[in-house]
Every structure is written in structure tokens, then in C-alpha cells.
Amino acid sequence: MNKRKIFINFNSFLNTRNSIYEIEIKTDKNYEDILIKPEMKITSMIEKHFKIKADDFKNAKYFKPVWNKIRKKYPQKYYKYISFKIGEIEEVLNIYDFYITARIVYPFKEFQNFRNVKKMEEFYFEIEDKYNEWLEDNKELELKQSKNLKLKRNNSKKNKKQTDFDINIDEIFSKKGKLSGKKKYEYRPQQEKLALKIIEAVKKSENLMANAPTGIGKSLAYLINAIKYSHEKSKKVLISTFTKKLQDQIKNKDLPFIKNFLGIDIDITFLKGRKNYICKRRLKEFINSNQNKKIKEYVYNLYMNHGVSELDDYEINYAHREKLKSEICNREKCEYYSECIYWQLRKKAKNSSILVLNHRLLVVDLMLNRYKNREILIVDEAHHLESIITDELGGEIKYGQFDFLKKSSKRAGKIIRDWHKIYNNIENYEYEDIREFVDNLKLIQTNSSRKIADFISFNLSLLKKYFKHRKYYYVDKVFKNNEIFYKLYPYYIGNWIKKNIWQKFSSSVFLSGTLFMDDRIMLSLFKKIYNIDGKRFEFLSLKSPFDYENNVKYYIPKNFPQYDYQNKEKYFNAVVEFLKEYIKRTEGKLMVLFTSYEDMNYVKEEMNNFFQKNAIKLYINEYNQKKFEENLFHVIFGTYSMWEGVDIDNKYLKSLIMIKSPFSVPSDGFFVSKKKVLDEKMYYFYYLNNAVIKFRQGFGRLIRSRKDKGVFILLDNRITQKSYKKFFINSISKNINFEFLPVRDIFNMAEAFLFDKTGLFLKNYKKRKNTYKFLDYKQVYIARDGRKGIKVIHGAAGTGKTVILLHRLKFLLMNFPHINNVLFLTFTASLSRYIENIINLENLNVEEKNIDIKYFYSLCEDIYGKKKNDVKFNMYYQKVYKYIKKNENKLEKYDVIFVDEGQDLGELEYRIIFKFLKPKNSDLTIAIDDKQDIYRMNFQKFFKNREVMEYKLKRPYRNTSSIMKFANLFIRNLFMPKRDEFFYKGEKPIIKRYNRLIKLLNGIEDFIKREVRNSNYMYNDFVIVYPRKNIYEQNNIADTIAEFFKLKEINLENIASYRNKRNFLILDNNVKLSTIHSIKGFEFKIVIMLGIDDMYVTNRNKRLLYIASTRAKEKIFIPYREISGFIDYIGVSN
């Protein structure tokens, strides 16, 4: 029993578009018994439209009884098949009306491949007769319900064009047009304007030159116009793109969308250069070679069974690709010519209504006069066309120019020797001097194979250019790879453009994000190069739809070495250090653009260890968005191939750094050749224009949609001193400007812009001068430590313990999907509320992510169900622990637990915490400041016999050096930062005496109002702290202060009160009031320390004042009444 497949048309209630569906054929006894069965693919769209479920359809009576009977009579076995690409089926079988562009599978015949599609066609029509015979022989199967599965020969004929279908561009692209109802489509006025301008240009037989920036949807605008004119007016359209990637994007993304939207058949062909396709002859050689067996099977299966003919679709290395692509084509003389996909596509391209190719193929084909019957030319990424035309009209003369003749002619030896003699003195020869050599070449040409003859013909034209028409070319003597060769650049390409484009096509549309600079001089330059007379040309410059002013931050470093070609190493060492710090701060998601391989490789080598140590994936001149999900922390290094045509989702690309301004080498022959036709001023602007276009294209990688947001940094600060700076800036937008900042400020500003959801850091940044919320190298390492287990972070106040916990929380949630329950635990209620405020400001949805934020007592009360009442805390926690042990199976277990201010919890408390942790794959991270251990809890005992990862932080970031020196009075031997750009000296604490309490309170009021008035502080920047409630002979100092502030109409909130501990907001613009105990873990810009003169000098109280003083980020104010207590201790005199 053999089982085979084909695809063919049949009638069914689902086949509303005459689509091709898969048919299964079972045969026995030389094809005597044949069954045809459709394979229905029920998509979600079909389910919704027909109100039918895929599972129900598979089990429906329509098929099931029939197939059950068939299986009994004909047991299933494996089948063999051969596949052909859709283009081949179109060409021979004339089947054009399919909708699903899946592979098309046809059967083997007696286990032998069809020699060509025509042979396959013969077998195709045999199926109908076999099927009818089979129906007659299998009446008992009762296939009446399958009567619609009848093959029809007329289904293989091409459908007539739907010439009555009207494509109204205005109705499609307008604000309430047909496209506006499409999912994920966004109306863009620039797109509508461009589409209408293209109509106008084609109607008037004019040429449109348009700057169409990224994001306006230019592909849809020109594609739908192309389809309109090819469909309605029967005009043949030629579309040229710069890269094969863009061809593939049109084919695989844009075209399916348009087909679905318009609901019509589109006669379109995509053509690439011959070397992009597998050569059947070389495939046979490859299969018969001693290559790796698995690779041979992979290639053979993909080509023969799946019809994959483009080399880019094969996941094989460069060496294998070279062995499979066409080297020299014998054309009609090749035994595989009729099966060659390239020549079949060439044949199809002649008659196709729309042909899509790339710029190089366009120029070569225009030189061969191949597009006589094409009327409309559309060129996308047209700014590249000039260089490609220049390249193709020029050429290269080399010492080994005729080495290809060695094995093809007996006279080759003499020809090669004569050429070497000419080449060694080439600059002194004219065309007449080499006439004999040329004649000998022509003689060999007449007796050579076609492929050799073509090569000779090509080289003869090069000899003529160099020796006969040298005055029209700039000849650049190039030394590369230990070889000298001569490269030809035509001085002027305008005449060629006029003859082959402006005069050949009735209408042309040139599009690019940066086709010409919107400037009078630059526009004049563009017209001269392209030989534009202005009569049939319109210039259109569209604005970008993106908000570049608000969605991007632009920076140039101030304290950074200038690029110097003579001392590149110094510059690139600075680049390496900049990139390391920037990547640590911003978590990667960065593209770095270089202007040379040499520079990129140097930086790469210097940073390899950094990337490995930090588990950051580096991509070189490539990217893979699917793999970005696996490697969340990644960096892309790219040279010019990555400066354009790269489209990366904003969630994977947040920053773009340009290492150098993209100026080309002035001695490059391409630019020198322009000096012949441009005066000095015009040449300067031509050279500048080239750099500006590259700059704009490079920047365009960062922002790809309206919602995208990012940071753009140009490290080359020479631009700030140049007059041409405005051209670079205006190429992005006239409304933006680069900030010229110190390196550290760039790090802080960029990190704040990307991560600080509140925007508070960026507001008045220069006033703040601190690095809160940012991680240094060691902090990053701790936050991103992916190992599970117990982690204890030791650090003094302001070293970033809480910041690390928050970053670690985000890191774990982003990278480990299995984490469902998180507990963030603090010792005090006020600190738990503070943490909740920060998490909300950081845009982490507490409910969605199942993040519980509690203080320790509330955790115990919730599970135990009873309050502490008059029982001491230790006794209460013992009861809780006993209850938990008995009811452990009822506990809600957590994947991750964070503990802040962990020094305030003892062994018993940690035993309770441990009960809430899942036994496997869980994580416990604890932040501890030993110097704040005012309760003397024995927390170390719990961890004594457990495996613990410990980290020690030494460098404080919160406080100014003046505040740190003051805190050092209470806790000796604190780490003191060195004076560098990381830290700011700040003001010394203000200590002022008032004789009476009322005067002291008035002094506090005056201080607060003065700072708000003069330094732009907000009320929520202040906190007043006191050691206990009965200072200064008051029953409750908090009540006294509250009454005073109420009279003065200053909003005050006591966050030490039980009610406010749970409800206060960080940004409510209230002055905060608290005991020192309750303020642990907090930070404020200004701390007012009250009552330190009413405190005994004890070690416990020293720790309290250390806590109070280190809450301050910028200033401390200490009002007092008497020279006693700690006022006396710190040595304050009258």
C-alpha cells in the first residue's frame, strides 16, 4: 500500500475562495485504487466565522463513518512524495487562485522524481480518471456525501482578472477609511498624503521624490498604489528595494495583509540575484560529496520535499552555502535548466504585473535593457541607488583579471602572461597599445563556452572603460589584502539616470527616510546628482509621526576624550569603560553602532570578560528577537549593515549608542570622483549630506513606533564644536536638542528616564545631585544573582540595600515565570507602607504579581488570628510558632521572601519566616545593617548551621560626605567615600539653639518655609524625628508639634501613629513626623532631628542618632534647648 499527497482545488462549504487544499492519495496495484480526501485546517478565524469548533469538525458524521470504513479496507502506511514551489505550479499548471501560500506537494511516480513540472502535469490529470474508477469500485463505502470532492480540469486554468474591482486610495487611507477598521492599524496623515501624492504623480506621468520617515507606513502606501494600477489600468509596475530583507518583508508581511484586506488575486513576482538560489547541478554534486551526512539529508529534504530554493532559508554555514549556489551558469545548456527556479522566476517576471527586486539587480537589468514594457518604477530606500549605480557603471582592474581562463583554453597561458606585462605598466598604456591583446581575447571568446564568453565580454567592457574612456572615470589605486588594484568611479551618473529611468518610465516614485535634506543647498545638490530638470518632478518631505522630543533623551558626554585617529586607543579605552558602566546601569537592551570592523573588534575583545562575567549575551552584526526572550540582558554591536533595515521591538532595545559620527574617509574614490562635477562648496555639502543620512538611518533603529521610548548617545563630542551640528540634529527633528553633560550625569539621567516611572528624578535633576535608585557594579551582581537559597546583604545606611531588594524583585519576576507568590517583609508598619509606596511608583502591580507587603507582626496576626494584647512580643511569637507548626499545611507558602531591616528580627522570628518559604526552588533575601541593631536581636544564631550567601556593601550613595562625617560621630569607623564625581560634599548640619520650646517650633517653621521658598523643596521632602514622646517635659511631643503646625497651616502627618503607618503616601506633600524607631529604612531629603539634647549618651542612643542622621540625603537641621545630652557629646558650644 502506497500513500501519496497532492494539493488541488475542490468544492466545499469552507472553500469560499477556490483555495488549494491538501489532498491525500492512497494507491494499490499501480494506482488502480485512489482516494481523495481534503485536509481542512480549522483556524480560529474560521471557527468564529462559521461557528464551528475544530474538534467537532474532525469528529463530524460528514467524515468519520466514511474514513472508518476506508481504514479497514486500506490500512495506513507511510508515503513518499516530491515537492515543488508555488511559482512552478503557477507557471505550468496555471493555478493562480490559491489563497494559502503553503508548500505544494505532488507524488512520486514509481519512486522516481519527475524530470520537470510538465511531466508532473501529465500525472496530475490522470488522477481524475483514477478517482472516478475508484468511486465505482467502492460503492459500499457510501461516498455520496463526498460528491463535492470531484476534480475538475478547468480548475487548473487561470482565473480572469477582476477588472471591475475599484481600489479607491482615498477611501482606504483616510481617517475613517477601510484600513482604519483593521486590527493593529493606526491612521497616519503622512501615509494618506503619500498615497495620494503617488496617485497624482502616476496620473500626470510625473516623478515623485519623497522623504518618508520610518513609521508612516510607506510600504502599504506604494504597494496598494502599485496593485491599483496593475489591476485596474493593466500597467506593469517595477518595485526596487535596497535589501533582500525588505523584499522578504514585503512578501511575507505586507503582501499577505494586503491580499486579505483587498480580497483580490495579486499577480506579483519576487526576484533576487541568481546566487541567492540553490543550483540543482551543484546540489547533486553536494549530495554526492563527502560532506556531513546529516547536513546533506537536511538540505536534500528541504529542497526536494519542501521546495525551499532560497539559500537564506537554510540554516547552514557560509562554506556550505558557497557549495550550493550557482557559480557559473550554463543556462540552456545545463541539464537542469528547465527545473531551475531562478530561470523559471525570470520567465515569470517578464509577464508579471508587479515585479519586486533589489537595487543592484535593477541597475544590472536596466543596463541590459530588460524592462522595456514596465511603465511605473517605485524605488524604496532610494538614497542607496546612487552608490549602486556608481559601482555598477565602474569596475575593478586586477592583476589576476584573466586567471579564470587557466583551465578553459590552450591559449590562456599566453593571454595571462601578456596581461601581467600590461598590468605592471598599466598607467602608461592606451587602448591602441593593447589592441592585439583585445583581439586575442575576442578570438578565445568565439571558441569558448557561453559562461566563459560572458566573462570575457564583461572584462572587455572593463578594459574599454579604463584604456579608452578613462577621462570619464576617477581611477582609485587601492591597496588591500597585499594586492594593488584599480577601482573605477564614473564622474557623473546623471546622464545614465536620465536615459534609463527618467526617459524609460512614464512615472517614477523615489522613497526614503532620508532621500534628500530639507534644505535649499542640499536639495540643489540632490537635483544635480540625479540630473533633475524640475519640470516633471515633485519633492515631498513628510514629518515623522513619532514624538522624538519627549520619547527620546539625547546625550553627548562632556568629560570624554575626543576621537583622534593618531591615538585611537585612548578613545576606545574610554568607550569600553563607558559601555561597561552604562550597561550595568541600564540592564543592556542596547545597540552600539560602529563605523569600522577594526574599532568594533577592539571594543569586543576588551569587553568579552565583562559580558561573560555578567551573563550578558553579545550579538555581532545580527539579532534574533525570539532569542531576546531567553537572553533578557543583551547588547548588539553593529557596523554599517546594522545602521538601517533593522527592526527590533522596543521592549528589546532601549538605548542606542553611536561611537563616532559616520563620516566616510575623504580619500574614498566615491567622494573624490564627485569633485570633477561639483564645486568646492557643493562638494563639502555632498560629503556632509552622506554622513547626515547615515546618522539619521542609524538613529532610526531606536524608535519604530509611536509608543517607543529610548536613550540616544553620541560619544563623538567633536560635533559640539562644529557648525554642521544643526544638520545632524535637524535630520531627526528641528524640535530636539542634545544635552552636553558629564559622563556620570548621563548615566544617572539615562537610568532615570528608562526606569523611574515617577519621573521625579528627572525633575530638577541638577538640584538633587544624588544617585538614589541606581546600582553600582556590585549591587547589580547581587540583584541579578539567579541562584536560589538564603542571601544576606550586609551594609551601612545608604549603601543601597533596599534598592537592591527592589531591583532583585523586578529581576526575579521578569526572569522566572514560575514565581507566583512574593512576600516583602519589614519590621515596622511604617516601613512596609513606605515599601508599598515605592513598589507602586515603580509600576509593579502588587495584586497582579501576587506581592504581599507586610510587617512582621501583621504577618503573625493574620495567620494566628489573635492580637498580641498585653502579652510581650517574645511570648506572642512563641505561641504563633507553635500554632504554625501544628497547621503548617494551611499556610500560604511563598516562592520568594524579602526581609528589609532584618537586624531587628531574632532567631524565633526567622524560624517563623522560614515556615512561610516553599521547601524547593525558593529564595530568601535579607538586608541587614548591623550598626542599626538597636534591639540586640540574636539573628545570627538562626543562620549558624545553614548555607548562606553573604554580600557586604561598603560604599554609601544616599548621603552627602558632610552627613556621613556627622553620622561618624555616633558610629565610629564608618566607610567614608573619597572625593570624586560619585559623591557631593553638601552642607554641614545646621545646629541652632532656642531657649524655649515655642521658639524652637517657630525656628522649625521658618527653616522649612525658607528651604521651600529658596531651594524648590516640597513639604514631603522633610521629616521631623524625635527619640521618644515625652521629651521637653511634654506628655506627647507629637501632639504638641501637630497642634502648632495646624495653627501655621502646614500639612503634617505623623507616620509613627498606628493608623498613619498603614495609610500614608510618599508624595502627598505633607511634612512627615515620626519617632526614630519608626523611620528606619526611610530616606528624606531633609531630616530635622528634635530632642537630641534630651537623650542620655548611651550606645543604644548612639545607634538611634546614627539611624536618624543617615535618613537625610541632603540636609540635617538640629534645633535644641540645652547644651546637654548629645549636644554636649558632639561638642556644640554656645
Automatic annotation (TrEMBL):
EC number, as in UniProt = 5.6.2.3
> Per its UniProt record, what Gene3D superfamilies does this chain match?
P-loop containing nucleotide triphosphate hydrolases
**What are the UniProt keywords, alphabetically?**
ATP-binding, Helicase, Hydrolase, Nucleotide-binding
- Helicase ATP-binding domain span: 177-441
Cofactor requirement? [4Fe-4S] cluster
Q: Which PANTHER family does the entry link to?
A: DNA REPAIR DEAD HELICASE RAD3/XP-D SUBFAMILY MEMBER, REGULATOR OF TELOMERE ELONGATION HELICASE 1
Q: What name does UniProt use for this protein? A: DNA 5'-3' helicase
Q: Which organism is it from?
A: Candidatus Mcinerneyibacterium aminivorans
Q: What lineage is this protein's organism placed in? A: Bacteria, Candidatus Macinerneyibacteriota, Candidatus Mcinerneyibacteria, Candidatus Mcinerneyibacteriales, Candidatus Mcinerneyibacteriaceae
